[in-house]
Description:
Layout: H1 7-14, H2 16-31, H3 34-38, H4 41-44, H5 57-82, H6 86-115, H7 119-141, H8 147-172
Helix pairs in contact: 1-5, 2-5, 2-6, 5-6, 5-8, 6-7, 7-8
Amino acid sequence: MSFHIPNILLAVPRNPVAAVGLPLALGFFSGKPTSDVGASNWYAQLKTPPGCPSREAFPFVWTLLYVSMGYASHVVVKALDNTTLENNRNALTLGLALYYAQLGLNVFWPPIFFVKRKIGLALLDSVLLTGMAWFMTKILDRPTNGKATYFLLPYCAWLGYATYLNAGIWWLNREPKPKPQ
């Protein structure tokens, strides 16, 4: 089975600066409206699970992860440009399609959680995002000789941790059911 990736989505990661810049820019614009909410009473009053870092850690961590995953997309397109094997071409194309799909899920999470305050819906987004990122990483491992995996594993690990945090916040702050009278 082969996938077709539009040329523009292949052109962006061919340039390493654009490859890194795309997730950085999307992350910045997606996260910008959330910074005020992150400092709000609503966020401060949320119960959090054990191991939740301070909110100041998140921009630093996400910046590093966006750089890493963006560079991974560059590695993938370079491998795609250089492969002659149909199986590798199919895996790399599918992996790149998954890259853009998970990037979309990633961009939607902050507005869902912080702006809309839909913690359960954000959790669903996070679960889908995490599963897709792990699947993408698995698919890209062999045709990139592990190079993409090196850049994507920290992202996958953080997504697992972020999903734990989202699940904990959802669980600890869910609405109590009214008691029957």
